[in-house]
Batch of 4 targets.
Target 1
Amino acid sequence: MSVHDYTVTTAAGATENLAAYRGTYLLITNVASKCGLTSQYEGLEALHRANRDRGLQVLGFPCNQFGGQEPGTDAEIQDFCSLTYDVTFPVYGKIDVNGDAAHPLYRYLRAQAPGNFGPEHGFLFEHVRKSRPEAIGTDEIKWNFTKFLVDPDGTVLRRFEPTVTPEDIAAEFAALR
């Protein structure tokens, strides 16, 4: 089993098989347009543009499970990404990343890289500890902009918690190349 075994739904409602990305590094992230971390779209887009010719593809998955911070329709989300951040990487249809309705891709990602979310994540740890204490110590996605780095064979290499910036990931990706 690998990330390449999953299908996802585009914002337009079409089905896409992630096997199309075989041979490419992926950075998969759950995104939201009304989050305190939404400005990470800018860094994700810069990372994508700087590294797409070096084999890195960013994939965004909108999710409204954290404070209702992605309330829009798929079309509204696409407009926001395009007009606000000039996003050129794929932003798919809205999904759940936790709970019974979690997308199978995210169940797989969470199982492969359960994360290490603790006090070193500062303000976000305190926020999650107060608002979602049941998530601490589990493989659940803690908040928007959790990122997973996947190798060209579809193996999950690492989970980055939301406070890890795209700029930090750029250095790690450069070391892989």
Target 2
Amino acid sequence: MAEHQGASRESVVDAARAILVAEGPDAVTMRRLAADLGTSYQVVYSRVGGKPEVLRAVHDAAFDDLTAQVLARGEAPGTDEHLHALTRGYLDFAVASPRLFDVMFGPATGGLTRDAAMRDVERESFRGCWVAAARAWLDVHHPQRPRGSAAPLAWRLWSATHGITVLHLAGHESPAGDPRTDLATVVGLLLADPLARR
């Protein structure tokens, strides 16, 4: 195969993500990436770095994609429907790519260490997805709320959604037999008492 010296950083990350989604993180090797891209190990390394850096780049891009996907839902911010759509989008993202979701939220793998830079990416996604949506909803329904109310509501929405998602991915049947139904129930309960401080 002719060596393709023009392999870009984006193409390396895309190739790594495709391998990871199909086969898991152990299948992402520099040799495999070079072969799939028709280039050399040295070119792959020069674009992104070694395997830990490649997995970090996949992690970061996945959070960008998650944020974009859940924000692309058509419901108007500030509505109950918007929050329900956000939780469904999160579940759909995880179900579509469980191995990718595991790299985003699971234990470190492939030499990857969840350091401060990765946590910054994760926090930015949390703010973009959950805090912004919670603030918009509170602006409509509780405009006179105490300061700092959006982050606690966002955390409850995210942690409930993430918990149901992880349990679903692990094969646990939800009470309703449908995780979307249970998500809707939990979101409804949280919105019934959105300013709880306990």
Target 3
Amino acid sequence: MRYSLPSYWCLISLLVVLFGNAAHAQNRVQLPAFAKLDECYRIVGKDSVVFFYSLEYKLTPPGCAAIRRHVRLDSAGRFFGYVRDYRLSNNQLLLQAAYREGKLEGQMELYHPTGELAARGRYLQGQQVGDWGYWYPSGSRRQVLSFRNGQYPLVQQFWDETGQQTVTNGTGTWYRDEDGMRLQGAVVGGVQDGKWFLRRQQDATVVAREVFVKGRFRNGFLTDQLEAYQDEPRLSINDWQAYLMANEYKLNLACSGAN
């Protein structure tokens, strides 16, 4: 059920309570200086707020923020209704989506810094569902992933940056480049199979490897830490979903140490 706060002052009180507990906990353990709470948002209506974030979606003063979010809050401090995120550097739309009772609901679109569409798909009660399409900054097709009941997504189709299709109907070779790393491996029937490697792109050094058998994780190894593990995979097919961090209302460091 949606609820509009009755006045400007009620929203101020809500924000103070919402963020006050987090600030109190941080002060108790004498962590490095964090941003001031009242510098990280602007109230623009009875239940409408603009939040300012770092690239990691931590609350940040506007002077050193990278993202601003236009959103409404319900009486419990949860996002509801339509939300729009913009890059402060060029006022480019970064994300548009909707919330219901604090959970993502309905269609979401993500955009590259160039303004090209990066991803489009649907959320249901906070979970990605159905087929999601992805595109490169050039506008060319990248991949189609199918999400099912909170499980790991199925890789349906994948194209490299030259336009060559390397996964067709769930079978082939998949990769993702991110933060100077490349995650790569084979998929069969839409699921990971065989050895998957995370390598530094600069020198192709293996940072981690994981072994799958028809989608079932068997084991993994972190090269730098010399750590083996068998509990669960640590390398994800999903792109980094930094926007989910906004739900946690975490404070960034003060501007002198932010970003």
Target 4
Amino acid sequence: MGFYDYSVTDAQGNDFKLDAYKGKVVLVVNTATGCGFTPHYKDIEAMYERFHDNGFEVLDIPCNQFAGQTPGTDEEIHEFCQLHYNTKFPQMKKSDVNGENQLPVYKFLKEQKGFEGFGKGPAALAMGVMLKKIDKDYKNNPDIKWNFTKFVVDREGNVVARFEPTQKMEDVAAYVEKLI
């Protein structure tokens, strides 16, 4: 199975088939409303506005698996994002990205692009220290480590990049721009 063979549930409870994104560059991101990385919404929205007319989409999947940082309902999450970040890209139903109840598309994404580290800098160091307390072997599994992990899917449906939340949003935007 490929990226376009999967579907997710949108915030209204409808089945959303990912083949709607055929021929587009897609940023898949697990989001949270109460996280230190929540301001990434601003940069993601800026990317959406900048690249959308050239075939760029955002697949926003709120997730409450990381320190309970997305406690609201789908409607509350949507209202928060519109109020604070004026988001225009659609949001999907709050879902799991790891574990027994993970979305099948997330299992696929992680098989295509596993965890390669947090990069350098204070945020990367802090994430490593925190995760080592939670999972001593975190470096050796492909699981999503925290909110705002991003996958980039190219126009052919290939998972071509994974960006951890500690990586600069400018790097994500530059990568996407090369594909547009």
